[in-house]
Specification:
- This protein is mainly α.
- It has 17 helices and seven strands.
- The protein has a three-stranded antiparallel sheet, with helices on one face. The protein has a two-stranded antiparallel sheet with strand order 4-7.
- The longest helix has 20 residues, at 141-160.
- It starts with 7 loop residues before the first strand and ends in a 7-residue tail after the last helix.
């Protein structure tokens, strides 16, 4: 029996006068598909293209696969309109900052490169070229990999919606990470930073001093520090149930969970003594924007200036990769060095553990007294005022 190809090709004359060959085939239900362009100008080239598509299992295109990426990306990462975000939010908690990050990466890195590309034409090689171009344009390899992860999220959802058959980013080996290990300060520098006699010399703003001191003692994130209100200050503990984000104001913590962290009574009293008029006032209130906390840059710049005052210049700070987030690393390091159990430490920091034993461990505040004893080793807490 003579072999019969599963497609037919025929020419179409365009308005420009150019002839392009199209093809038709049958879907899985035996229905003839709509005419699809091969992009070829000769019958032999059109048939060769169809055979190639058949070999790649693309002869019958997945619904939407021929859509341009920019059309597919319409409304993506929009908190109110994105179908993917609505799907995810109906099944788990996700943050506005996650959506914001996706929107920024899509607009800045993904759309400029893939916007005019059809979904089905995004290949592992084109993703590899894109990664290299981002690095050539000055983006770190870690950030380029992060951008690819968000592209993968978008392509994976196209599979869920039956618009694609595979996420090609899974075939791409990520670039070697360029992330630098976060630096932490040594104990002598930390003690000099927060020495009572140095407070007015090194720190022009007392709230910046206490914001950094609190981060060193608790490992709290910048957003959690900024979101702290006077009503969150208890007797020997600070309640962490929210964070303050630049775009969205008060929001749940990164993990969507609350935690209580013991801190020395002297530090609690020092925080309470900062000028305020209402329990809902922010502890680290902005001196310029009434009703808002200090800008994160102000808190970080104050730390940098204090380090400068101790003789550590800006180049050295950069070389050691010291940032405000370094306090979180510092706190973890000091606590583990002093043999605080990881399960207790994770409760303090809000870090997640993969071990179910830790997941089902619940300590009360009364079980965490040794945290305060170790905190006393971090800083000389004698009568902070």
């Amino acid at each position: 029996m003579r072999y019969r190809e599963p497609f037919t090709v025929y020419p179409r004359k365009m308005k420009s006068g150019k002839v392009i060959w199209y093809y038709q085939t049958y879907d899985e239900n035996g229905r003839r598909t709509n005419a699809l362009s091969t992009g070829q100008t000769t019958k032999s080239a059109a048939k060769a293209m169809c055979r190639k598509l058949e070999k790649e299992d693309k002869l019958i295109p997945t619904r939407g696969s021929r859509m341009l990426f920019r059309d597919y990306a319409k409304d993506w990462w929009d908190w109110d309109k994105c179908e993917f975000l609505q799907f995810k939010r109906s099944r788990k908690s996700i943050s506005r900052s996650y959506a914001d990050a996706g929107m920024t990466i899509m607009k800045k890195h993904i759309l400029p490169y893939f916007g005019s590309t059809r979904l089905e034409d995004i290949t592992p090689h084109s993703v590899e070229l894109w990664l290299q171009k981002m690095v050539d344009n000055g983006l770190s390899r870690s950030s380029a990999n992060h951008s690819m992860a968000f592209l993968g999220i978008m392509l994976t959802d196209a599979i869920r919606r039956e618009m694609l058959k595979e996420d090609v980013t899974k075939k791409v080996i990520p670039l070697k990470s360029s992330a630098r290990r976060r630096g932490i300060l040594d104990q002598a520098t930390v003690q000099a930073l927060f020495k009572e006699s140095n407070r007015e010399v090194l720190w022009l703003n007392p709230r910046c001093y206490y914001a950094n001191l609190l981060a060193a003692c608790t490992g709290m994130r910048m957003g959690e520090i900024r979101g702290l209100q006077y009503s969150d200050l208890g007797e020997g503990i600070v309640s962490v149930s929210k964070q303050f984000l630049m775009r969205h104001g008060l929001s749940p913590t990164k993990t969507k969970e609350s935690r209580e962290i013991p801190i020395p009574f002297e530090l609690i009293e020092a925080l309470r003594s900062l000028p305020h008029s209402d329990p809902d006032d922010f502890v680290f209130a902005s001196p310029r924007e009434h009703g808002n906390p200090m800008h994160p840059t102000s808190i970080w710049k104050a730390l940098r200036a204090a380090l400068n005052g101790l003789g550590m210049d800006t180049a050295e700070i950069k070389e050691k990769n010291i940032t405000f987030h370094s306090w979180r690393h510092y706190f973890n390091t000091v606590m583990r060095t002093n043999n605080i159990a990881d399960s207790k430490l994770q409760q303090m920091t809000g870090h997640k553990s993969s071990k179910m034993t830790d997941h089902y461990t619940h300590y009360g505040v009364q079980d965490l007294e040794e945290i305060s004893r170790v905190q006393a080793k971090i800083l000389p807490f004698a009568k902070i005022s």
